[in-house]
Amino acid sequence: MTALATETNASVKPPRIGLLDTARGVALLAMATYHFTWDMEFMGYLAPGTAETGWLKLYARAIASTFLFIVGVSLVLANTPEIRWRSFWKRFAMIAAAALAISVVTRFVFPGEWIFFGILHCIAVLSLLGLVFLRLPLPVTVAATAALTVAWVVDTWIDPALLRSPIFNPRYLAWIGLAEMPQRSNDYVPIFPWAVPFLLGMTATLIAMRTRILERLAKLGTGSSLPAKAGRHSLAFYLIHQPVLIAIAYGLFVIVPPEKPNPVETYLKQCNASCIMQEGEALCRSFCQCTLDKLQTQNLFAEFRSGTVKPDDGRILALASECSANTQ
């Protein structure tokens, strides 16, 4: 009887969970606060690299993880007991079109750091992969989630170089997430490791559907709150909020221009922001301070900052190599 009840629970359409819309809306608001920090940095009110280091870096990752977890949850709920193909492809087309538009716009506005695979690109691809897991037995999905989670732990805490290769550095492969040194982007969310929160959301929901948890969550309500309403229109919010925030930041820039940043502080922030994409934060602080000291000692700092001396200059490469060896 228990097995029969379990199968029945997994084969009926799940109830709408207002709490999920609320969680999505709260994540959207958190994302907006982070993006406004980025905008203030872009306008010169914060030192370069501020939004990519320290607690703000962790804040951004927590927001992205929350979004992708919710995407995994929503994919299961929306396509149970069967895949709603028309609704799925409509949603997929909207996300893919928005992702393409963001790539095109940022390619012109930020040619050196354009968004070639951001959060929307990641959601689009993971949604396709999610359909595959919906067709597979639950133990397979659980095993894949566990394997990717272990790979993430290894990559983050044990040996970052173990799973990575320079073969994946070009943009046409960097989206996979195994690049040794991915090219700079204002929003880089590759499949690995970001499939982990997505699959965790799918797995948790598939397991919850075999219990009464979803019904209990649905009874909590909260679907009429302001965050919940925003959560039900997440794509529109995502596309609209950043132009609005940039306009606000630009208005402040015109009315109250920021002070000129300290060049030393700016260099260290930028150096650390680039370095921590491949190395640990503590190691990067030592490396960047070392290169700063050597640039100043050799009277190259001003020329390097102005662009007169390029990063591929032999003197720059030599001091960078020396500092890298000293901080290993």
From TrEMBL:
Entry annotated with the keyword Cell cycle: no
Transmembrane segments: 17-38, 58-80, 92-109, 115-133, 140-158, 191-209, 235-256
Limits of the Heparan-alpha-glucosaminide N-acetyltransferase catalytic domain: 16-243
Domain of life of the organism encoding this protein: Bacteria
Alphabetically ordered keywords of this record: Membrane, Transmembrane, Transmembrane helix
Keyword match Nucleotide-binding: no
Protein name in the entry: Heparan-alpha-glucosaminide N-acetyltransferase catalytic domain-containing protein
Organism, scientific name: Rhizobium mesoamericanum STM3625
